[in-house]
Amino acid sequence: MNSNVPFRGIIAYPITPFTTTNEADLPTYRHLVERLVTSGSHGIAPLGSTGVLPYLTDEERDAITEATLQQVAGRLPVLVGVSHLTTAGVVRHARFAERAGAAAVMVIPMSYWKLTDDEIFQHYDRIASAVSVPIMAYNNPATGGLDMSPALLKRLLEIPNVTMIKESSGDVQRMQALRQLLGEDVAFYNGSNPLALAAFAAGATGWCTAAPNLIPELNVGLYEAVQRQDLSEARQIFYQQFELLQFMVAKGLPRAIKAGLELLGQEAGELRAPLHPLTEDEQRELRRILDRVPLPASVG
């Protein structure tokens, strides 16, 4: 695998659990990471939206980064989220992740003020100048508040170690436009769970998802069916998980994954305010969905 593109396949995102006293629960976190490492996934990605990165202090982010790298222990490549409102903040976290042993870092532009394309380009250029690991540029207008056009994403790839694009706008036409604009050699990744099948059909290199916390066999099975070019099987496997993927997005990834883990008998810690757990009605709905998903006995 090209060292500048260290990820293919299913990249699994752990939640960040908290204790009842509102501290990052590192023992529980390590256990959840270990489940993902042994789930068949192809990479681990701490400190994304699922890991509630914006709700963590710098020290907590450092601790989660170190705990992830120590627990994974080189068995899978690790993609660390290092986003921050300021360029200096991203540089600080990117350097820490690189020193800790991350295979790559992921950056979503976060802004109170709407940034221009030139400001976003300079943001990535300065980050890239500060580290040598590959960078995944992450477009998620729903959480970052900025929507990077395919043309801007292509421009970012002019920066030598910006080598990967993650697209989470939820627009399948955007996926198709990216592949057409970027060409076959550029690695782009799906970040919109309900569009996983369409994204692979458009040529996505991988799928960045929290779903392996609950249904890893189905996630990996979809990727493997795509690799075999077995469209019929890929479609069947995808629609077996589609309802759960929709639920996760609708209810919020940290809430849904925490509840799902607990329904599968796993300790998942607490959420950090202002997030609240799913309501009892929502938990019952999730239970019904999980009961309809063909989960192998090894899950949970």
Structure summary:
With 300 residues, this protein is of the alpha/beta class. It has helices at 26-37, 58-72, 87-100, 117-130, 141-144, 150-156, 172-182, 196-201, 216-227, 231-251, 253-263, 280-292, and strands at residues 9-12, 43-44, 79-81, 104-107, 135-139, 162-167, 187-190, 206-209.
What key phrases describe this protein's structure?
300 residues; alpha/beta; TIM Barrel; eight-stranded parallel beta sheet; 12 helices; 8 strands; 47% helix
Oligomer: single chain
Radius of gyration: 18 Å
Mean pLDDT: 93
Task: Tell me the span between the first and last alpha carbons.
Answer: 31 Å
Write the layout of secondary structure elements.
Elements: E1 9-12, H1 26-37, E2 43-44, H2 58-72, E3 79-81, H3 87-100, E4 104-107, H4 117-130, E5 135-139, H5 141-144, H6 150-156, E6 162-167, H7 172-182, E7 187-190, H8 196-201, E8 206-209, H9 216-227, H10 231-251, H11 253-263, H12 280-292
Parallel strand pairs: 1-2, 1-8, 3-4, 4-5, 5-6, 6-7, 7-8
